[in-house]
Design goal:
This protein has eight helices and 18 strands. It is of the alpha/beta class and about 300 residues long. The longest helix is centred in the first third of the chain and has 11 residues. The chain starts with a strand and ends with a strand.
């Protein structure tokens, strides 16, 4: 099943050629989700041949402009395109007020239902569940309320071994086996042992997105054994003091989070515009966590299965 992330923008507050503001598209099975929406995101979607109308939900981490200034334009363009499907929007306190005021002053009436869900950065937990995945918020520490997001596939059913199906099995009994249960008769006697008739489903994969945050070791338990982690790496370790005062992280600190949480793969991005060449940041992270990759714009990363 599809579970992949396409990087639309991986820059920080100041733009550079080839390094746009934060935005990613997550595909889980047949559904598309947008994570952050910096200025110019709708152009980046078109460049990557991702139809904006396919988006089912948008997740905004915080209200610094490089993470949401593209949202208003995108919402308006969807309406100009005569979208009718509902759209879910998750964002921090204050985002709803901004949208309301802008829509009021511009006399904007969307052509589709927009369901806005305000997030509480102080209370991480489950915020959404679909047939294909769940979404939890993660507690981050920044200059304004900020949340990360943990996307996890829903558990799959056990797989029936077709060659072992016997004519006497009923549909209800097959359903029990797919749910991982043993099948008993009315007296409690074992009829079919689950392990004899099914194979285990693949382990649900997970992807975590940690945008702007100070180095936060408390994140490690929330990220334990995540399959792929995106973590900001605005500075390098020689500017750890600068990172601390601006509530950002270094490449080395991102790698320490990944190592402590035993994630499978780390993506880093949101590099300061002072770093024209990202290779030194990548090398710093790989010295601590070798399976680290730069969140290169336009690239798609498959979330690995363990």
């Amino acid at each position: 099943m599809t579970f992949q992330v396409t990087i639309l923008g991986s820059g920080s507050a100041s733009p550079l050629p080839g390094r746009h503001f934060s935005a990613q598209v997550l595909r889980v099975e047949h559904e598309c989700f947008l994570i952050d929406c910096g200025e110019g995101t709708q152009y980046r979607l078109l460049e990557q041949k991702i139809r904006p109308g396919k988006l089912r939900a948008i997740f905004i981490s915080h209200l610094h402009g490089d993470h949401y200034f593209g949202l208003l334009g995108l919402l308006n363009s969807l309406s100009l395109g005569k979208r009718t499907d509902e759209l879910f929007l998750f964002g921090p306190q204050g985002l709803g007020d901004i949208l309301t005021e802008v829509f009021r002053h511009s006399n904007t009436r969307l052509s589709y239902p927009l369901h806005y869900h305000e997030l509480n950065a102080e209370q991480p937990g489950l915020i959404w569940s679909t047939p294909c995945m769940t979404v939890h918020t993660l507690p981050l520490r920044h200059r304004v309320p900020c949340t990360g997001f943990l996307f996890r596939e829903q558990p799959k059913a056990h797989r029936i071994i077709k060659e072992k199906i016997v004519p006497a099995m009923t549909i209800a009994q097959l359903r029990q086996l797919k749910e991982g249960q043993d099948v008993l008769d009315e007296h409690g006697t074992l009829l079919y042992r689950n392990a004899d008739y099914t194979t285990l489903p693949p382990r649900p994969r997970s992807y975590a997105y940690c945008s702007d945050t100070a180095y936060l070791p408390e994140l490690v338990p929330h990220l334990q054994e995540t399959d792929m982690l995106y973590h900001e790496a605005t500075f390098r370790d020689d500017l750890a003091g600068r990172a601390s005062t601006t509530f950002h992280s270094t490449a080395g600190q991102a790698a320490r989070i990944a190592k402590g949480a035993q994630v499978s793969k780390l993506l880093i991005g949101h590099l300061s515009s002072r770093y024209l060449d990202p290779e030194a940041s990548l090398a710093e992270a790989r010295a601590i966590f070798p399976d680290t990759y730069m969140a290169v714009e336009g690239e798609t990363f498959e979330v690995p299965a363990r």
